[in-house]
Design brief:
Elements: H1 2-6, H2 12-18, E1 26-31, E2 34-44, E3 55-61, E4 64-68, E5 71-75, E6 80-83, E7 89-103
Antiparallel strand pairs: 1-2, 2-7, 3-6, 3-7, 4-5, 4-7
């Protein structure tokens, strides 16, 4: 019965809109060992990689470019892309983008690519 008590609806758009920093992740749920996180971004993060986890990006508002050393991947609303662990990348958004990210940890740190200017 404990699991039933924790079930609740999450308004993903409202949580994302309320974020006061770009490229910061807000955990909205957890399932099967993964965190479900929302973030919004504009501009670009720093080039970085995650040696211990893949990074899943799902765009639900706006457009996102995942810059890779081998070329860019363009994402539109409804698109998903998985950056494999160990692959250097640099997400960029020319206009504000809203994202759902899935992974075992929160990566919105300087080491996770978060730029120093990201606070609104």
């Amino acid at each position: 019965m404990e699991a039933m008590e924790r079930m609740e609806r999450v308004d993903v758009r409202a949580v994302t809109s309320a974020l006061d920093e770009f490229w910061s992740q807000q955990v909205i749920g957890e399932a099967n060992g993964n965190l479900f996180k929302v973030a919004k971004g504009i501009g670009s993060t720093n080039w970085h990689k995650h040696d211990d986890e893949d990074e899943v990006f799902f765009v639900y508002k706006g457009r996102l470019t995942i810059q890779l050393r081998t070329g860019n991947v363009e994402l539109s609303e409804g698109d998903m892309f998985i950056v494999p662990r160990g692959v250097e990348h640099c997400p960029r958004a020319d206009d504000e983008v809203h994202l759902l990210l899935v992974g075992p940890t929160v990566t919105s740190t300087r080491e996770g690519g978060k730029p120093d200017w990201s606070r609104k």
